[in-house]
Specification:
Jelly Rolls; seven-stranded antiparallel beta sheet; six-stranded antiparallel beta sheet; 24 strands; 38% strand; Pirin-like protein
Length: 361
């Protein structure tokens, strides 16, 4: 569908503007494949980290206060395969339990970031355990898929885990705006090194100028997104939370929208003092891979024949099998945030920097 620029959002920096879909994935451009904003008001747990079902128990209904997704008792996504792309799971609040076919696992959230190159194939689960029994268990995070070039689609899977306090954050001098830089070069000279993505991911090459950033602006706040380092990137901005009054490049934004931006212009985001709530944006960009994309379900390749091969390989090998006792694997409720990669368990505060990077699988 062709995107059009409405009069409400006309500006030099905004190339097109469209309302965000009410439910489901956000529109994305090459090299991004998929982006979902998960926001669920989960209730208190029942002591088994479970929630009352909504809908039919495999629920994506946006009219519900929360979704079970493919979980039947614990919300989330039980074991499922991937091949041919990278995943980025960027958390804001709540917890996620990860388990995979290589034997890795972990519990992360509350601002932590996990990046995974699925490469030639892996099976993993992502569950949302309702830890608290005395208060609600809200969760907010982004699940983002980034494509791999053909030469890297069959590489060995790899991971990186970044704990919340190691993720670079830029804050304006008045403290009224901040940008959490999940992935990307240091656009604001933050003073902290950017996260290093897993090897062979498209984001691992700095010349591809990949950025994924969560921006929050308080009433009266203002922040500038600088020009892109690489002039050919696809640059997108998503207005995900807030009410009317926000402006992007002096254009008023009256609803939740997806904006295509000119990467060769800086963009100023502002929220008037009169606003009653903060405004939140997701900024994503990257140099396009410009290769054919064949996608079916959890597999992303270049040709349809490669998709058929992925299904055959999965049927034959299960991408290593499933070493866990349940498909919707969760860890004990009392266990804190941790990462188990290559047989080594780490936590957010295991070294002086609080950052543990897993070895390649």
């Amino acid at each position: 569908m062709q995107r059009t620029l409405s009069k409400m959002t006309k500006s030099a920096a905004i190339l097109s503007s469209n309302p965000l879909p009410r439910a489901g994935p956000y529109p994305t451009g090459d090299p991004l494949l998929f982006c979902v904003y998960h926001k669920d008001e989960y209730p208190q747990g029942n002591g088994k980290m479970e929630a009352p079902k909504v809908g039919n128990g495999s629920d994506f209904d946006p009219d519900q206060p929360y979704r079970m997704y493919h979980g039947t008792k614990i919300p989330g996504f039980p074991s499922h395969p991937h091949r041919g792309f990278s995943t980025i799971t960027a958390t804001i609040e709540g917890l996620i339990d990860h388990a995979d076919s290589v034997g890795n696992g972990g519990r992360y959230g509350q601002g932590d970031l996990q990046m995974m190159v699925a490469g030639k194939g892996i099976v993993h689960s992502e569950m949302f355990p309702l830890i608290h029994t005395d208060k609600p268990n809200p969760t907010r995070f982004f699940q983002i898929w980034m494509n791999l070039p053909a030469k890297n689609k069959m590489v060995k899977p790899a991971f990186e885990m970044f704990w919340a306090h190691t993720v670079p954050v830029y804050e304006t001098e008045d403290g009224k705006a901040k940008a959490t830089l999940w992935i990307g070069q240091n656009y604001w000279n933050i003073g902290k090194n950017p996260n290093t993505p897993p090897p062979n991911s498209w984001a691992d090459d700095v010349s591809n100028d990949v950025v994924i950033s969560h921006i929050t602006i308080q009433p009266g706040g203002r922040i500038t997104i600088p020009k892109a380092h690489e002039p050919t990137v696809n640059r997108s901005l998503y207005y995900i939370e807030g009410n009317s009054g926000t402006t992007v490049d002096e254009a008023p934004i009256q609803q939740k929208v997806y904006l295509d931006l000119d990467p060769n212009r800086e963009v100023v985001l502002e929220l008037p003092v009169s606003a009653t709530t903060a405004g939140e944006f997701l900024w994503m960009q990257g140099k396009p891979i410009e290769e054919p994309v064949a996608q079916y379900g959890p597999f992303v390749m270049n040709q349809e024949a490669e998709i058929y091969q992925a299904f055959m390989d999965y049927e034959e090998t299960k991408f290593g099998g499933w070493p866990w006792p349940r498909d919707d694997m969760v860890f004990p409720a009392e266990k804190g945030r941790f990462a188990l990669f290559d047989g080594k368990e780490t936590t957010p505060f295991d070294d002086s920097e609080g950052q543990e990077v897993s070895p390649e699988l």
